[in-house]
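Forwarding the complex inputs:
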Amino acid sequence: MEIRVQNIRKEFSRYPALNEVSLDIRSGELIALLGPSGSGKTTLLRLIAGLETPTAGRIFFGDEDASSKSVQERNVGFVFQAYALFRNMTVLENIMFGLKVRPRATRPPATEIRRRAMELLDLVQLTGLHKRFPQQLSGGQRQRVALARALAIEPRVLLLDEPFGALDAMVRKELRKWLREIHDHTGHTTVFVTHDQEEALELADRLVVMSQGKIEQVGSPDEVYDRPANPFVFGFIGESSSLPVTVENHELWVGGRAIGLPAPHEAAGDAKLFFRPHDVELVEDGAALAGVVVASRRVGGTRRVELEIGGYPDRIEIDLPFDHPAAEKTRIAFRPKRWRVFESAKG
Amino acid sequence: MFEAETSVYDSRRPPQPPEHHTRPTTERRWIKWLLIGMAVTFMLLVLVLPLVLVFVEAFRKGTEVYFKSFTDRSAIAAIQLTLLVAAIAVPMNLIFGVAASWCVARYDFKGKSFLITLIDLPFSISPVVSGMVYVLLFGAQSAIGPFLKAYDIEIVFAVPGIVLATMFVTFPFIARELIPLMQSQGNGDEEAAISLGATGWQTFWRVTVPNIKWGLLYGVLLCNARAMGEFGAVSVLSGHIRGKTNTMPLHIEILYNEYNFAGAFAVASLLAMLALVTLLLKTLLEFRYGDELAGTRRH
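Prediction (whole assembly, two chains):
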């Protein structure tokens, strides 16, 4: 089931949570809405579900205009951040709920409902827990019940709102892998919201990076990581260091010195240089960026140092080999191996 | 960090404090006992003593006289009327209370705080004034008066008036119990239900009602106790016609004014027993379902 979001605008008492957002979601893909708090990602998800109505714009499910359909009519499976399991029903009753409330015409017989629910319980690997109540389950188990409950109604699309936000790191990693497996097994179009870019990069077929009610970039994890479209995406995905530069003679200049990086396409003037801390090479003093070490710490297999580059208040972080003898006050000269330059108006 | 946590970490059990260790935020022992003593003394004097005296006075002339008081026709009529009024007022307030709580907890609309103030109004108005309002509204001198007379509808000084007055006075109990409960529960469960395809009605009966059932029961208990015991508002509206428009509290007043103390206290003991039963049920509810009562206020 493909989904098309067309020029959606959503305002909450004049506050624009979403501003002219358009998006095409392909059938069967696992797509992530990624962004910081307030970016509008949860609002967009709820609009697709029908839990909110747009101020302007339309949403299509396949060829149908679903914008005026109620949430019940859209047949979406929604998994809430806080699970929202029905506390007065057992696990099995929770999963059966969606089928039990169907109108008589489309409701399967009771034995069939029960059989399907038990099957789903097996799918989410919670066999044997059907008589428990939600309060008696761990967080990870509750989340799996919530997913089974959403899958029970055979939804056209699965929507997950920060599904692993409330879980601890180990459980989160497990469930990520497991969600991907379930998705590959069932083939549902799945949209999930997260603020954790690691999660998005690991799970999704495509990412939608959002900020302040707008979509900044849509692309595969590789595209978004290696070819970020603007400063926000560069800074949000993966680690980044940035520095104000000037473009002169198709070269980059910092503090009155050329730093040995060509800029053949950029217009002359002020700009901002972005690079990843681990994408640098150390050079002998020359046309390069140079700074003085002010802090250094061991991060995994490398050494992360903070440099003060002449005149600039912010510190730049770069990664050095862990056995590099960088101590405070050492002068280090380096050049980024891969970088992007964005004109200052956007920076 | 390394003290008591050698047991397996269970996220469902609250952390147990180490034994033999006074928390730094507790008062000193004598202050604790002084406060408890003060509270208990106050309760004994103001609550328990009068209750005990009711039973003492009721049985003063012996058990035979006690039971004879209930065979009196006007006493029986009074008891029946009280039960009838409660049987109408409590379910009506249940419906209105749930509807009002739903509006306040689930919707945002202009005038919401005004509605909340209105709900609390019966608590702040003197019951006598509440009764007066109905006399002014439906009495013979009011604008509607002639209309009612033409159709032979009696409200004031008749049973309908008593029911109305009782409903007014007991309205807040259920709403006040449900509003904070529903607000703290949030509408996550209801959203989940409709996302799974349930209609509004199905969501209400299968999801909302089970979630609020303990608050509802609590509210109904309090509402009922007050409905049966209401005096002021009903007194203004009733007309005091023996055998017809007297509820139990009114009947007690009549007996007392006739110096029939044994009879008065005998009927009063029924109300006192109602109070005790209400208290017992409340305590039982809290005892058995205290965790849930507290739990349903949180996720």
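Chain B is about 75% helix and 0% strand.
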